[in-house]
Amino acid sequence: MIMARGFDLLLMLTSSQPLQDIFFCPEESNFYSYCIESLVLNHSNSAKSIVEFGSGDGSPVINSLLRVRYPGVVHGFEINSLACEVAKSKIEAYGLTNKYIIHNSSLFDSTKLPADYLISNPPYLPAKDNKLYQPLLYGGIDGISLTKELLSLNFENVLLMVSSYSNPEGLIDYAITKGYSTANFKVSPLEFGYYSSDPKVQQRIKELQAQSRAFYFKNIYLLAGVLFTKQKETVDLSTELLQIMTSLSC
């Protein structure tokens, strides 16, 4: 039974959809799933609700819910209708319809749901405009526009994926101005993939690097899962996070 479940999870991380239709990057999705488990689900026995921005095909949260017993409900918001259809199909196949509910709408246009956590692997590709391989992955001129908007929603706890080539210092400083401290984080090196290798994205990353706002080495960058919180008793690890995220240089 365990072997069958593992094989099913492997199949779930493959995609028959074009990369331009639905976000697909197994390495990044697996790391996001790991961050959800280690930074949120394993510490949320009393949490009743989690809100997710940008659910994609649902694989990261589905994988996490299959591995960790979470007593509450995850409400995912995704504007890509095709991705929503795929996510709902997977959720039904794994018997999680009462644990993971996908809304085909923008979180920003929806009534704010009461939730203990907001989680997201938000669009963080920096570019001059959104005419990219996958326009929905556009994160603004420095890659953190949508991430900053999420922090402005004022959830008490927010798990966000943060890229070292998308102005990490600017994002951490913004979080501090919104009353957040860095409670915990996980970091993983990743290679530039299909989406981040878009020529317009690469050009903008080089410009940000020249301004000391993007940090990478050859084809490697750092991706961090960061748990921001407004809980006052938390030790703030913002300085330590920033030291790591700015450690790579060409």
SSE layout and pairing:
Blueprint: H1 2-12, H2 26-39, E1 49-53, H3 59-67, E2 73-77, H4 81-93, E3 100-103, E4 117-120, H5 145-151, E5 157-163, H6 168-177, E6 181-191, H7 199-210, E7 216-217, E8 220-229, H8 238-245
Parallel strand pairs: 1-2, 1-4, 2-3, 4-5
Antiparallel strand pairs: 5-8, 6-8, 7-8
Helix pairs in contact: 2-3
How would you describe the overall organization of this protein?
The chain is 34% helix and 19% strand. The protein contains eight helices and eight strands; from the N terminus they run ααβαβαββαβαβαββα. It has helices at 2-12, 26-39, 59-67, 81-93, 145-151, 168-177, 199-210, 238-245; strands at residues 49-53, 73-77, 100-103, 117-120, 157-163, 181-191, 216-217, 220-229. Helix 5 links the parallel strand 4 (117-120) and strand 5. Helix 2 crosses helix 3 (59-67). The model is unreliable at 1-15 (pLDDT under 50).
Number of strands: 8
Q: Biggest sheet: strands, sense, closure?
A: 8 strands, mixed
Helical segment count: 8
Give the topology string: H per helix, E per strand: HHEHEHEEHEHEHEEH
* Computed Rg: 17 Å
Shape: globular
Helical residues, percent? 25-40%
First-to-last CA distance: 47 Å
Mean pLDDT: 92
Low-confidence stretches are: 1-15
